[in-house]
């Protein structure tokens, strides 16, 4: 199955967050790699979207949206470093 | 805090097709009028939503081709076979028609005028669209950052922005074409995809520490990004935007 880049999640994530999370640096809970979320592997040919680590393939983030609701799972991220300036 | 978060979230905006221009036999540029457009960075995209009479909706992402200019943006659409949205945008929609747009989005695959390092652009097909936005932004900002473009396309007549790119070359842009199906008469390289030898010959070397922007179909981006990292480019400096597809 082919994937896109984390960039492609920017629209859906911006309906939830006030900032662009795809420019944030995240640490993978699986292998510890840190990388911008925009550079993750994004699988979106499904009811939701799944972002995976480019180093170890672990799931970083899952997002499912439905009318009026969204489910966000970020268990795979130890932290997100956001630019607040 | 909650209040601020709500204010900052992105919502769908009404857009109107203000103008259209054919770029090739299949690719078309749409100029969209979007009241209250907040501006954008080169390389960002918009999500476009179409709604059928029965309420079914389809959303796709399209790169913005133009530099920030008031309430107007240009998107260039290459129709995807059996696509739900792109054939409508490239062939059916007309001036004055309404669309829904969400954006701008995506701050990672962007170029800012404050960047002074060399920039290597590598386009596959309509992947040239956000890279054209970067070339236009560089010109608009009178930036001295060294840019190079390698553009892989099927044939000479599938080149999007051909005349404008020729003007960029006249102004000093090193531009190389890689034709994958048909080459112009007398072209030195037979039809072939981008490979390591071509990248070594016509792109910035890793020791020049360029920021690389690679955009195109998934397989193209995968191949080129892997070749560039294998050649010694820092993986974090090879930014990619996959369009999906083969």
Please describe the structure with a list of short key phrases separated by commas or semicolons:
heterodimer, A: 85 residues, mainly beta, 5-stranded antiparallel β-sheet, 3-stranded antiparallel β-sheet, 8 strands, 6% helix, B: 246 residues, alpha/beta, Elongation Factor Tu (Ef-tu), domain 3, Rossmann fold, 2 domains, 6-stranded antiparallel β-sheet, 5-stranded parallel β-sheet, globular, disordered N terminus
- Give the radius of gyration of chain B: 18 Å
CATH architecture of the largest domain in chain B: 3-Layer(aba) Sandwich
Order of helix and strand elements from N to C terminus of chain B? HEEEEEHEEHEHEHEHE
How many individual β-strands of chain B? Answer: 11
Estimated structural class of chain B: alpha/beta
CATH topology type of the largest domain in chain B = Rossmann fold
Beta-strand percent range of chain A: 35-45%
The order of strands across the largest sheet of chain A is 1-4-5-6-7
The class by helix and strand makeup of chain A works out as mainly beta
Specify the biggest β-sheet of chain A: 5 strands, antiparallel
What would you call the shape of chain A? globular
């Amino acid at each position: 199955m082919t994937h896109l880049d984390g960039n492609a999640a920017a629209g859906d994530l911006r309906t939830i967050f006030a900032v662009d999370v795809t420019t944030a640096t995240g640490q993978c809970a699986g292998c510890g790699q840190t990388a911008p979320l925009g550079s993750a592997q994004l699988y979106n040919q499904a009811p939701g979207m799944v972002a995976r680590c480019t180093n170890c393939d672990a799931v970083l983030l899952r997002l499912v949206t439905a009318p009026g609701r969204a489910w966000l799972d970020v268990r795979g991220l130890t932290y997100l470093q956001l630019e607040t300036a | 805090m909650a209040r601020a978060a709500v204010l900052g979230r992105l919502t769908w905006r009404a857009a109107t097709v203000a103008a259209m221009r054919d770029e090739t036999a299949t690719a078309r540029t749409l100029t969209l009028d979007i009241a209250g457009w907040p501006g954008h960075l080169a390389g960002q995209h918009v999500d476009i939503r179409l709604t059928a009479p029965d309420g079914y909706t389809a959303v796709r992402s399209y790169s913005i081709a133009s530099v920030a200019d008031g309430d107007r943006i240009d998107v260039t659409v290459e129709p995807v076979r059996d696509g739900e949205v792109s054939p409508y945008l490239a062939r059916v929609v007309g001036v004055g028609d309404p669309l829904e747009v969400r954006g701008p989005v995506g701050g990672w695959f962007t170029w800012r005028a404050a960047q002074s390092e060399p920039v290597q652009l590598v386009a596959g097909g309509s992947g040239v669209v956000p890279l054209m936005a970067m070339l236009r932004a560089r010109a608009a900002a009178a930036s001295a950052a060294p840019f190079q473009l390698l553009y892989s396309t099927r044939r000479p007549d599938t080149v999007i922005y051909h005349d404008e790119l020729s003007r960029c070359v006249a102004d000093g842009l090193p531009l190389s074409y890689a034709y994958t199906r048909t080459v112009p008469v007398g072209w030195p390289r037979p039809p072939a995809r981008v490979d390591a030898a071509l990248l070594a010959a016509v792109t910035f070397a890793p020791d020049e520490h360029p920021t690389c922007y690679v955009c195109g179909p998934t397989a193209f981006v995968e191949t080129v990004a892997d070749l560039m990292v294998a050649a010694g480019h820092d993986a974090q400096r090879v930014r990619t935007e996959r369009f999906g597809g083969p």
